[in-house]
Amino acid sequence: MATTAAATPPLLRRVNAGKLLGVLSTAGVMTGTGLIEATGLTRATVHAVCNDLIAMGWVVELDPGHDAPGTPVGRPSRRFEFNSQAGYVLGIDVGAAKTTVLLSDLRGETVAKTGRSFQAVKTPAEQTQVVNEAVLEVLSEAQVTDAEVLAAGVGVAAPVDREGNILSDDEFWRRFDAGLTTRLSELHGWPVLLENDANLAALGEHWRGEARDVDDLVVLLAGERFGSGLMDSGRLLHGSRGGAGEMVYLKLVEGVGDTAGIARTAREQGAKAIADPAVKTSLRKLAGDGAVTAELVFAAAADGDKVAVGILQQIAGRTARVLATLGILFNPELVVIGGAVATAAKALLPEIEKQLATFTTTPPRVAVSSLGDTIVSVGAVRHALNYVEQHALDLQLNCRG
């Protein structure tokens, strides 16, 4: 009993610090009264925890002598502001073809961004080297040292459990367990937090994208391979071993048959069309001596090419079936289509929505992401910021002022 009592105050202090930082990091200047109302904490607790956070460098106390006109004369209110320059976080997307790295301040504002291709990569060690080079580039561009980075979020296209472990029972997923997080921690000294890329996409959309006011959400990464991040009542769903949202089940769905995403399907169907001399299509001329790409299929369809239009109609019907399964299983309010095809996918929305309504009586709203190629890395930044807020009392700040 004595042990429990002794452990309680530090735990409460940690929880309360996280609450206050969570509020201050998204607000401007706040008074003690405002923080009391926003957190539900007592006045004594708010001021005590703020004093701790000021001493540690997380919060700045401003001059109290600027109360609004009409404020009753008396003791001026204490005013607090989050120190967004107290440190930095990294958001790293390790995709199939490239890595995208964001460096952000503690309000999540991007300070530097870079991307590097994995085209010449042949081994996990080479992939880690490319990611590290991208990290070094953004740190150098912003003149930020390792000591100023508090955490890094990393997204990979594999199931990741709540403890940050990749599901490695399946041979395909074992390829992603390449020791990247361990190596980055060894090189730089900051915590590296692994998460599934679609889960991070859901975090990013919920924070900065199309789903800012939506807590029941699915984000569908739909480029080369379908993958989904699930959010219920504002919380990510992982499942017992990180497999929630994995879409291998699509092999069993009539009219879908596999996990190939929109870009891959468009490319393969376009290549099949021009390989048949009997098929008349502008794709053959557009491709020239090169390969058909998904972008060419969408461009040809926009110009009225009947073959390309037919391919996109087929893709829209297939995607509608995928969305219908997600809608039936998880009943989200909104499904956001993200990934490299998001911009092009806008052209598919009318047909997707039309067909979706025929597959389920409770179709979700459908939108396309506005976050572009940063959808996963933005979510990785949010993942790192969550860690920082939860562990603020354990982190050593090395900010420059």
What keywords describe this structure?
single chain; 401 residues; alpha/beta; Arc Repressor Mutant, subunit A; Nucleotidyltransferase, domain 5; 3 domains; 5-stranded mixed beta sheet; 14 helices; 43% helix; globular
Structure description:
The chain is 43% helix and 17% strand. The chain is an alpha/beta fold and 401 residues long. It has helices at 2-24, 32-39, 43-56, 124-142, 171-174, 180-188, 197-208, 262-275, 283-287, 294-302, 306-330, 342-345, 349-359, 375-390, and strands spanning 30-31, 59-62, 79-82, 88-94, 98-105, 110-117, 149-156, 192-196, 217-221, 227-232, 235-236, 334-338, 365-368. The longest helix has 25 residues, at 306-330. The protein has three domains: 2-82, Winged helix-like DNA-binding domain superfamily/Winged helix DNA-binding domain (Arc Repressor Mutant, subunit A, Orthogonal Bundle), CATH 1.10.10; 88-207 and 376-394, Nucleotidyltransferase, domain 5 (2-Layer Sandwich); 212-370, ATPase, nucleotide binding domain (Nucleotidyltransferase, domain 5), CATH 3.30.420.40. The strands form three sheets. It has a five-stranded mixed sheet with strand order 6-5-4-7-8. A five-stranded mixed sheet has the order 11-10-9-12-13, with helices on both faces. Strands 1-3-2 form a three-stranded antiparallel sheet. It is built from 14 helices and 13 strands. It comes from Kribbella ginsengisoli. This is ROK family transcriptional regulator. Pfam families: ROK.
